Amino acid sequence: MDEFMLIFRHEDGSKVASPEQIQVWMEQTMDWLGGIAAQNKLVNQGNGLSFDASRVVKHGNVVINGPFGDIKETIGGYVILRAASLEEAVDFAKGSPVLQGEGNSVEVRKILRH
Q1: Cβ neighbourhood burial of 95 (10 Å; 0-12, 13-18, 19+)
Q2: Do the Cβ atoms of 15 and 83 come closer than 8 Å?
Q3: Number of folded domains in the chain?
Q4: What CATH number is attached to the domain comprising 9?
Q5: What is the rounded distance in angstroms from the CA atom of residue 25 to the CA atom of residue 86?
Q6: CA atoms within 13 A on the CB side of 100
Q7: 4, exposed or middle or buried, with CB in 10 Å at 0-12, 13-18, 19+?
Q8: CA-CA-CA-CA torsion sign (88, 94, 95, 98)
Q9: How far is CA 60 from the centre of its chain?
Q10: Mean pLDDT, to the nearest integer, of 20-26?
Q11: For 28-43, how does the pLDDT look when each residue is reduced to its tens digit (9 = 90+)?
Q12: Residue 42 belongs to domain spanning
């Protein structure tokens, strides 16, 4: 079994859902995570990532306000899970409620251990 990180990307981070829609998505996300945990494959349910309290440090210690200056795409959070293969991790990703948002995506990456 390998571990994979599912990274939730939002095509346009400036769009804000209503509190009611966020509540629905959170319930769906908890159900989705519960299904993965029931298979003993949830390693870390991760966290959401703040859009406001963020900075990017570039080469030469240049600090800019957030990663959103020239692009709209944002990373909204992540989950770490255990899967037998990349294909199984992708199958878990396909069930993410994040994909209900137009333009959203889930990036799946195997975690390398050193």
Answers
A1: middle
A2: no
A3: 1
A4: 3.30.70.1060
A5: 25
A6: 12
A7: buried
A8: positive
A9: 29
A10: 88
A11: 999 999 999 999 999 9
A12: 2-110
